[in-house]
Amino acid sequence: MQIVVRDNNVEQALRALKKKLQREGVYREMKLRRHYEKPSEKRAREKAAAVRRARKMDRKRMERDGSAK
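Above: the chain's sequence. Below: its structure in token form.
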């Protein structure tokens, strides 16, 4: 990853770097790696995330189609 510092403006380059890191999920990864996570906990977390994504997609689809349950 490379960030260009223009006109000696380090603050702007730092903001760009932070935005790139956040977009790539580096902060989330660091937070998860602070403590050991058992494989069963990891599976449970990933499964819960998948359920949340599926429900969100269903809500979006219902909203787009204009249908109600």
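Residues 39-65 form the longest helix (27 residues).
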